[in-house]
Specification:
Elements (H helix, E strand, L loop, with lengths): L1 H18 L4 E5 L4 H15 L3 E7 L14 E5 L5 H16 L5 H27 L2 H9 L4 E4 L6 H8 L3 E5 L6 H5 L25 H33 L5 H5 L4 E4 L15 E3 L13 H8 L6 E5 L9 H11 L5 E5 L12 E4 L4 H5 L4 E6 L3 H10 L3 E3 L6 H10 L3 E3 L7 H13 L1 H15 L5 H15 L14 H4 L2 H39 L1
Parallel strand pairs: 1-2, 1-4, 2-3, 4-5, 5-6, 6-7, 8-9, 8-11, 9-10, 11-12, 12-13
Helix pairs in contact: 3-4, 11-15, 13-16
The structure holds 2-acetamido-2-deoxy-beta-D-glucopyranose (NAG) (3 copies).
The site of one 2-acetamido-2-deoxy-beta-D-glucopyranose has 3 residues, from loops.
Catalytic activity: glucuronate acceptor + UDP-alpha-D-glucuronate = acceptor beta-D-glucuronoside + UDP + H(+)
Main location: membrane
Subcellular location: Membrane
Amino acid sequence: MIYRHLLPLVALLLIGSEVSLSGNILVLPGEFSHWYNMRVIVDELVARNHSVTVLIHSASYSVNYTRKENFKYTVFKVNVEKEDAENMWQNHINVWINEAVPGIQTLLLFWNILSEIQSYLESICDGMLLNQELIASLRESHFDVLLYDPLMPCSDLLAETLGLPRVMSNRLTVAYTFERLCGQLPTPPSYVPAVAAQGHLTDHMSFLERVENVLLYVALTVVYKLQMITFDKYYTKITGKPTTLCDTLGKADIWLIRTYWDFEYPRPLLPNFKFVGGLHCKPAKPLPKEMEEFVQSSGDDGIVVFSLGSMVRNLTKQRANTIAAALGQIPQKVLWRYTGEKPDTLAPNTRLYDWIPQNDLLGHPKTKAFISHGGTNGLYEAIYHGVPMVGIPLFGDQPDNLFHMKTKGAAVMLEFNKMETKDLKDALTEVINNPSYKENMMRLSRIHHDQPMKPLDQAVFWIEFVMRNKGAKHLRVAAHDLTWYQYHCLDVAAFLLSIVALVTFIFVKSCAWLFRKCCRRTSAKSKKE
Ligand SMILES: *[C@@H]1O[C@H](CO)[C@@H](O)[C@H](O)[C@H]1NC(C)=O
Ligand SMILES: *[C@@H]1O[C@H](CO)[C@@H](O)[C@H](O)[C@H]1NC(C)=O
Ligand SMILES: *[C@@H]1O[C@H](CO)[C@@H](O)[C@H](O)[C@H]1NC(C)=O
């Protein structure tokens, strides 16, 4: 009987001993929204008494490493100026949002920027991996795990150099290229669409769509293999033995994927792929006083929240005017995050802000719709709070993200460079006044909230798991050790087919032989007669 009373105490002690485990974590973040997302994990790790070191290069423009934090920044010098890096990314964005540039010129610009990005990546890799002092001091720190964003170049090479188990944080890449080729994620082309961005490939495909999907996978694989040539050379140079980016990336112990079944089409996953989409979402906090007054002034009509994300700072005058004119025609009040020049057509119902507390606004009861570029962070805040969307995708995974929302009946999609004032106004009216959008978004929201473990707890659990167990090799599929023809059992098929062929051959030959023998005998007999 006494044990019964002791049990809670023992449990408490056990829990106590578990939380006192405090690890030493090295973090390599990406930029912009990728960092905002990872920052939430870092804060949670710190709150659980782990010691965290964020390793960042001197040209980072969205990680403010001069700020005092309750974790440590280690900054390494790279051969790039902050302004140059920032200009490079801004130019990259301007290619996408500038309709004035004709197609072929865009392509050339894009090509230039790609090679610019490549040399930028190499500078960062050099700055990190060839800095002996840095590597030595990181070695001495005896980290337990590396948490990284694959957008931070060479992060997996660093893990390799330091011999650390690793947890990767990632949104499934467009067409699952990295996950499929490097992580061995199965993607049956019959029902897993390579890219939804085309606007018509979902998990239900007709025969012709499946043909298109298979061809897309092949084309994307070829493009990927070509892109990897330079990277593989670099990886081989650094490690001093034949190494590919894909193999190095594929050694991640856990892949934390920043989506979930509220967003993805049902599809097969591997045991080391963990969905943690929406880990940054929180219940809404009260708004700043001035903002709350503006929101309340909207009355029953409510408000619309508008942001194209942290990377887009300004638009062309013409685009900004088209958008502002549409916003002026709806009865709602609009809060628009925009740092460019004030559009001439800005109506009194619209206010511009340099920054908005997006999660708190989306969680506000007066919010009717969210106009968004479709970045994964904003999209998950909309799902979390159940706010239907008008999507204006710009680049990267954004068209794909929004297409998912559209096919789930929770968003209307527009084309940034083609939309007119009327299109935006109609889209807003539709999303706000047709209740099906809200209902569908609320359904996704219920799915999102109805999970056995909160996404942030899940992310932290797996990081701690990897620290406790020095990796997660038991979740690694053996597909990593197979060649492509072994993986698809083509060698087995060839073997079995040759047996069948051999048996058939022997059978046919023996039949022929028997037949000839019979014939000869009968003909001999008939001759005798
Ligand atoms: C972290 O450490 C502090 C002080 O040692 C302790 O009071 C607190 O309970 C710990 N928190 C967790 C989550 O372990
Ligand atoms: C970075 O942090 C420092 C110190 O808190 C602050 O003075 C500075 O304005 C910040 N920079 C940016 C770009 O936010
Ligand atoms: C944004 O502003 C910068 C300078 O302020 C300018 O060079 C650039 O062309 C602008 N972008 C667009 C799309 O208008």
